[in-house]
């Protein structure tokens, strides 16, 4: 069975874009793959954060995985900082990573612009730690958004370079980009990805938003000129984004939705239906999520067990890499 690795940064409330672009897909992947799903808290501390919020966010991220349908009997769920092999492997990979490679990383450029007063070495080195995350588990497939493909390509480069220099050690992972829903865009700006760090809360729908809040945000979502409900990301990015969301929460093909709204002459009814569909989609998730948060000890036990099992796998890879390098 092939191995899948992925993770989410516990850097704030998880929004609908995270869910539809990544976590929803994970639930299906665990049926056919050995899945490793990590709460990547070391990545979260590369940008400004609150220690108190970080620990709560980590717990809520794990609860999100579980409420979404990730089964700890089928998949590994653990917190990155609970397995020190990640940072040790990152240091080893740092010795073969090249500075120009990291300087080319688009996300580093974007985050540096966003956090000008807090550019740190961890932010620069983020992709090497991500490579360590991936390579430790003999990962075959990394489901990512389009914005993370560059990081997976670096992991591939480092794996090949290590293998060529020290001997065959790492699998060469492949990225899996879900084209439909890979990038859910902001409700207030369909030209930018939905983001937890957006200035306006009207940009995103938090998974725990109330029905009233969800309906209000979608009602205020920007639209395109005209009234035709047609999927055309280039000319109608706002409506195309809403169609994508509608399709993913109802499992209806976009083509079918276009037919359903062929004779509509305004966006108002369409946006109301999108909002109702999102509310219906999130209602069972929110119930499970809230129930889980009432039992934090159970979540922590799942994370502890997951970390132990994860380390049994990662230790073998780390030990092999160190042996190949001549570290005694």
Automatic annotation (TrEMBL):
Job of this protein: Catalyzes the attachment of tryptophan to tRNA(Trp).
Name under which the protein is recorded: Tryptophan--tRNA ligase
Summary of subunit composition and partner proteins: Homodimer.
Molecular function in Gene Ontology: ATP binding; tryptophan-tRNA ligase activity
Annotated residues for binding of L-tryptophan: 133
Motif, 'HIGH' region: chain positions: 10-18
Record carries keyword Protein biosynthesis: yes
Residue positions binding ATP: 9-11, 17-18, 145-147, 184, 193-197
Subcellular location: Cytoplasm
Gene Ontology cellular-component annotations: cytosol
Underlying gene: trpS
């Amino acid at each position: 069975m092939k191995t899948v690795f992925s993770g989410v940064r516990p850097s704030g409330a998880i929004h609908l874009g995270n869910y539809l672009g990544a976590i929803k897909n994970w639930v299906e992947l665990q049926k056919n793959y050995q899945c490793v799903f990590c709460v990547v808290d070391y990545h979260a501390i590369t940008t400004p954060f609150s220690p108190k919020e970080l620990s709560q966010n980590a717990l809520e991220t794990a609860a999100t995985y579980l409420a979404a349908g990730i089964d700890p009997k089928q998949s590994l769920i653990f917190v990155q900082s609970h397995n020190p092999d990640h940072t040790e492997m990152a240091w080893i990979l740092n010795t073969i990573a090249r500075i120009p490679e990291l300087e080319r990383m688009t996300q580093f450029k974007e985050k540096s612009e966003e956090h000008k007063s807090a550019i740190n070495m961890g932010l620069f080195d983020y992709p090497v730690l991500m490579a360590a995350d991936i390579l430790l588990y003999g990962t075959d497939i990394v489901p990512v958004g389009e914005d993370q493909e560059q990081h997976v390509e670096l992991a591939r480069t480092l794996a090949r370079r290590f293998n060529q220099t020290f001997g065959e050690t790492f699998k060469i992972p492949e990225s899996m980009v879900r084209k439909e829903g890979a990038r859910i865009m902001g409700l207030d700006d369909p030209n930018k990805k939905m983001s937890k760090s957006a200035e306006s809360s009207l940009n995103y729908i938090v998974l725990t938003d109330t029905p009233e809040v969800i309906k209000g945000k979608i009602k205020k979502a920007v639209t395109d000129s005209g009234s035709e409900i047609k999927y055309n990301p280039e000319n109608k990015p706002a409506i195309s984004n809403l169609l994508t969301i509608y399709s993913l929460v109802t499992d209806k093909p976009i083509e079918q939705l276009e037919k359903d709204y062929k004779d509509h002459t305004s966006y108002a009814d369409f946006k109301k239906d999108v909002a109702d569909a999102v509310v219906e989609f999130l209602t069972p998730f929110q119930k499970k999520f809230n129930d889980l948060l009432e039992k934090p000890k159970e979540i922590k036990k799942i994370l502890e067990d997951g970390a132990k099992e994860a380390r049994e796998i990662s230790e073998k890879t780390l030990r092999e890499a160190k042996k190949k390098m001549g570290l005694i």
